[in-house]
Amino acid sequence: MKMIIAFAALVAVATSAAIDGPNVQVVAEELADNTGFSDYKYGYQLSNGATKQESAQLVNPGTDDQHYNVAGSFSYVDPATNVQYTVRYTADKDGFHPVGDHIPA
């Protein structure tokens, strides 16, 4: 339960950090042929230091066990401390699995 609360708080902070207002610009963007029917990949970097990368593979398509195996990361800079935080994660049929130096085990 602590992990879910910590992650929810982290996502809220990361989301608010990524939306700094009209001065935030996309510095870099990576898009693949994401059709919505199979694997996907994308990433971006913002001028405020926030980044996001994610890729996924469709597993067992067309079966009752169809799901994505997802791997990615996001980072943001805390405006109060100017410290960058990064979360690496995987997600699969067994759930969401975040890892970061600042996330309690």
TrEMBL record:
Keywords: Cuticle, Signal
Keyword Ubl conjugation appears in the UniProt entry: no
One Pfam family cited in the UniProt record for this chain: Chitin_bind_4
InterPro entries: Cuticle_Struct_Prot (IPR050468), Insect_cuticle (IPR000618)
Record's keyword annotation contains Transport: no
One Gene Ontology MF term: structural constituent of chitin-based larval cuticle
Signal sequence bounds: 1-18
Cellular-component GO terms for this entry: chitin-based extracellular matrix
PANTHER family reported for this sequence: CUTICLE PROTEIN, CUTICULAR PROTEIN 47EF, ISOFORM C-RELATED
Record-given protein name: Flexible cuticle protein 12
Organism: Neodiprion lecontei (Redheaded pine sawfly)
